[in-house]
Fold these 4 entries.
Entry 1:
Amino acid sequence: MHDNHQPPTFKERLSRLRYNGTPEIAIGSLIITVVGVDYMLQLRNDQQRQDMVKQLEMQVHRDAIISRKEDKELIQKGLDPKFRCVIRTVPDQFDGHKVLRNCKVGDIVDVLEEGVGPDRMYNLCSITRRTPNNDKKQGVSIGWFPTSCLQKIDEANS
């Protein structure tokens, strides 16, 4: 196409590169590199996410242990109830390690402390229950319950 004294033109060099597949190799290598880097970043993000979940689970577990310890101390102190309430409704989405669990409408609870928790919208309550095998033993559960779901019992009527 050209003589040996003239350098190849740009068009000739481009034609030669296209002929031997160099652009396809370069583009393929670039795509493989991008996919590899993306995969590594996803692995790193997944690992960080798992580490955060583990840390949160450990913190919740520690909080639950502290809460149970505080509940045992309250039971041992024999904190006198301020008044009694009947549960009028049980919220649908009501969970957490500080809440009073397994309550139903009509249960009677002792209020140990008023205005606790976020926005002071809960009462610290206790409920005495029989053990599952219905023997004479009784257990005490302590936890928060929303004030809006409780109705104070008049002492004269109880």
Entry 2:
Amino acid sequence: MGTPVAELWDPCSISTEALVDAGIDPAPLGSETNPADGVADASFCSYATDSFELTVYSFRSPLESRSSPAEVRDEIGVGDRRAIRFTRSITPTWVSCIIGFDARSSSVELEARPDVIAPSGENSCSVATELAKSLLPQLPR
């Protein structure tokens, strides 16, 4: 027998009520599990707010295993959980913010990206942190 494989949480399983309460349109913009056949390593589900797109990722691996040396990661507290926050430049002026949580032997990340057509000017990390707080009870531990 081999080593048990961590279960991959479905990021599209967040309840409609929790999404609406957080100001998120509950109709997913898109979702995918990679690879679609066999044992999946990652899965995501994207949603929209009035001025941001939120993508919720589920990974079979812990946060540390996907670190990039170029990413500056800050340890923060979100509710009663330890989280990692970092930004990713999409263009020099368009920056997303990711809040990541370890969960069992896997991890979950929430990425907030400003809407390309109707950006609000809000700070991506403030939005990502608030959305993470709102959705925290829905995320795996």
Entry 3:
Amino acid sequence: MTSLPEQPDGPDLDELRKDIDELKEAPTDELIEPEPASLLKEEPTPERTDAIGSEKWDEPADEEQTEG
């Protein structure tokens, strides 16, 4: 039978404990399907558009006003 030493002689376990604690604090949904911070920063801002059928077909597209 192998006896265990009083002090483990391996990598620093405090670092592993910190990682485990951080994972425990994270919501489960975030662990399963994370949203990368870079995607959240690049998410486009929606632009206001006219209602369907309100297009003015007699004006060229570059001159058409989208807000009245």
Entry 4:
Amino acid sequence: MTDRARIERIKNLDINYQPLRGPRPMSYDYELDEALGLIDELDESPTREEYVSRCLGPQQIGGRYRCGYWGQDYRVVAIDRGDDERWWSITVQWDDGRTTNHCTAWDETNDRVISQPE
């Protein structure tokens, strides 16, 4: 079956074809979405700054948050947004006094804001 025939067959099916959102794998079929008229609806890949902001979520220096995974509260001590050669990271002080540095993204489902800095 030729690509054109495959595209026409998909167009004629009674299905709700949805394009893949966000960053797409190397094997993604751009031509199919373009042929189906969906290419304009695709999300652009986020810039590095947008990606880091999404990972940090609402966290700000001086803010207090609850980590749903560990079930503990912490205060943000520092945020390093990195650059092209370094990855971003966040430094937090846990309620038990430990200070750790990590690059785990904010989990909207389980993490929560206790207080934001003024």
